[in-house]
Amino acid sequence: MLRHTLTNALEDLRHRVSAGSPSLTVALRYVKLKDRARVELDKLLDAVRFEVERERLAFPFAGRESRVPPRALVNWREASKAVAHCEGPRSSGGLGLSAWEDVGGLTRLETVGLLTLALERLERTPEVGPGTLFPGLTSPGSR
């Protein structure tokens, strides 16, 4: 259930940021999460931000497009086009939104890349439930 909640939150955040939200913090205000989910989301975003070079955030799938699921690639391209539309000048049909702030100094496109890579990492992480993995087996110490 937590994985589903985090996936929906990351997708919603990516949409809000690419659509013109002035910061990730502001976008988070509109995503309803319980405390545990918010903590896990913060951990996930911090881990991705720490492990991935900043240059890769702007182009998360560069050089590995053929190994990425088509859905993820299409979602990334749509989000990056939305960012270009938001930040593009009004004279060329863009919205001219230049207001963006990030504590770490990331651009809007890099933040969308961060959210995309966090989604990819979440999909690759195995989900472990609260119970035992094999309920029929007993541990050696309990015989």
Q: How would you characterize this protein structure?
A:
- With 143 residues, this protein is mainly α.
- It contains six helices and no strands.
- α1 (2-18) packs across α3 (35-51), α1 (2-18) runs parallel beside α5 (70-87) and α5 packs antiparallel against α6.
| General shape | globular
Mean pLDDT: 85
Strand content: under 5%
The profile of the biggest β sheet is: none
DSSP helix fraction: 55-70%
- The tally of beta strands, per DSSP, is 0
Rounded to the nearest angstrom, the distance between the terminal CA atoms is 33 Å
Short note summarizing the structure:
By secondary structure, the chain is mostly helical. It has helices spanning 2-18, 24-29, 35-51, 54-58, 70-87, 108-124.
Q: What are the defining features of this structure?
A:
mainly alpha, 143 residues, globular
Spell out the blueprint of helices and strands.
Layout: H1 2-18, H2 24-29, H3 35-51, H4 54-58, H5 70-87, H6 108-124
